[in-house]
Specification:
With 343 residues, the protein is of the alpha/beta class. 40% of the residues lie in helices and 13% in strands. It has an 8-stranded parallel sheet. Strands 1-12 form a two-stranded antiparallel ribbon. Strands 2-3 form a two-stranded antiparallel sheet.
Amino acid sequence: MNKTTYRELLLEARDKLVHCKACAVCNGVVCRNNMPGPGCKAPGNVAQRNYEKWGDILLNMDTIAENREPSTKFSLFGREFAMPVFVAPLGGIPLHYGESVTDKQYNEAVVKACDDFGVTAFVGDNGKYEIFKEMMSCVGGVMGNAIPTIKPWNKEAVYDRIDDSKREGAFAISMDIDGAGLAFLKQINPNAGSKTVSELKEFREYAGLPFILKGIMTVKGALKAVEAGADAIVVSNHGGRVQAGLPSTAEVLPEIVDAVQGRCVVLVDGGIRSGVDVFKALAVGADGVLIGRPVVPAVFARGAEGVQIYLSEIQQELKDTMTMCGAGSLAEINRDMCRIAGR
């Protein structure tokens, strides 16, 4: 029986997408500073750097090991998942990718596909409260197996969204703190935007759920996140969409992992495009990864089915790489299994 591949999904999606070109590999080269769209802030090279720097991490192959089926099972906040790969939050789908898929349709497809596959999706906050509430219905539809990601609004707006998330049974809440650089938040300053450690502590306490801070790019920022009580951080530069001139997430990940010393879960996104990349991130020290842009063409092609096809390919690539590097479980993946080019 023929099995649809992710590359075939890309071909199906091309005529439905507007800004995204459904490239064979989403490496940030074609879209660059195409805004709105999947590109990033001028000069548009951060997304490309994210992708390229995973290539500088090389693997140490070792097949003198027990011949066994690798396990990709992963635990987060008391929940068991099929693998440490989650879908990153994306909002403004019609504006950024094409009007044939609404934000609600996108999130319904992604949340359902992730739940069926045995992982979870981070649900985006695109700036319009009514759309956020629509997306929360998707969370309720999978018994809370999704993570709402709230922008750093003013206190009242954040609390409203936390209330909505808890009402729908979300098992964790995320805030993409680097969203402070987005234009629509800047327009309503001083109440929305950057947050202090004490403000983040308040949000964590009010939520009463595992709290994830997304958009950490320095050791200093990671330590402040830990001080604020974050249960997890996502090493992320927002795909280069909020600030130019940033390093890649692959470059800063090792020092951040070393700095937090296991005091919180460390996730990472940015340029991760394969199960091999997932393995590299885990070998460097991440607990799990988020993948965003490549999921969009899968949804535009076949909805939830497309997302499952992509997740299946990622999982198989991860398993194959684990086998070739001698790791039978995620706990066995370590830095001895990789090397960083030039070091």
